[in-house]
Amino acid sequence: TAIEFEVPDSRFAGALLFSMRGELVGSIAATLRSESVSNQVQRSALGNAAPRGFGPAPIAVGYAVSPAVVERVVDGFRSPTHRVRHPKIGVFCKDHPQGGALVQSVEPGSPGALAGIKPGDIIAEIDGTAIRNQLDVAAVVFDTEVGQIIRVTYRRGQTQTIASIRVGT
């Protein structure tokens, strides 16, 4: 699961994120910083120029990965191959205007392809979780384990299909 939060400074990538109870809830993986504050130069009575900020301070949005993802990465590094095995089903989506995720492409030979998913299909649900957009697909799949079987509900035209898909890497 991804965690999103806002803070007034963006110098914290790589930091650990804890709950109010002291439990590790994630590791900060990425940040985006807003540059919306306008800076103007103000001259003092002595003629010195100094930048002056107007508006709220810039806000950085941080994205943290869950402890399960951190554990998957550490386990991968510790494995004999030193490779991290992230789950995937081989479908690439974009948001559908009426909700769900519109499949744009399917990786040949991928679990999604073997299950019959095709470009143009609309993913509506994965393992009982309603899919509102492309990010929901990524979040749900990323929280699964490689080899796990998931049930994907998708629409093709007026036909709804439920496919059992074994998550790959």
Structural description of this entry:
This protein is mainly beta and 169 residues long. It is 15% helix and 42% strand. It contains three helices and twelve strands; from the N terminus they run E-E-E-E-E-E-H-E-E-H-E-E-H-E-E. The protein has helices at residues 67-78, 111-114, 134-142, and strands spanning 2-7, 16-18, 24-33, 38-43, 49-54, 60-65, 91-95, 101-106, 122-126, 129-130, 149-156, 159-166. Strands 7, 8, 9, 10, 11 and 12 form a six-stranded antiparallel β-sheet that branches. Strands 1-6-3-2 form a four-stranded antiparallel β-sheet. The longest helix is centred in the middle third of the chain and has 12 residues, at 67-78. Residues 37-41 have low confidence and may be disordered.
Helix content: 10-25%
Radius of gyration: 22 Å
| Class derived from helix and strand content | mainly beta
- So how many helices? 3
Strand content: 35-45%
Largest sheet: 6 strands, antiparallel
Ends distance: 18 Å
> What string, H for helix and E for strand, traces the elements in order?
EEEEEEHEEHEEHEE
Mean pLDDT score: 82
Number of domains: 2
DSSP summary, beta strand count? 12
Low-confidence parts: 37-41
Principal-axes shape call: globular
Task: Output the keywords.
single chain; 169 residues; mainly beta; Pdz3 Domain; 2 domains; 6-stranded antiparallel sheet; 4-stranded antiparallel sheet; 3 helices; 12 strands; 42% strand; globular
Which helices and strands occur, and which strands form pairs?
Layout: E1 2-7, E2 16-18, E3 24-33, E4 38-43, E5 49-54, E6 60-65, H1 67-78, E7 91-95, E8 101-106, H2 111-114, E9 122-126, E10 129-130, H3 134-142, E11 149-156, E12 159-166
Antiparallel strand pairs: 1-6, 2-3, 3-6, 4-5, 7-8, 8-9, 9-10, 9-11, 11-12
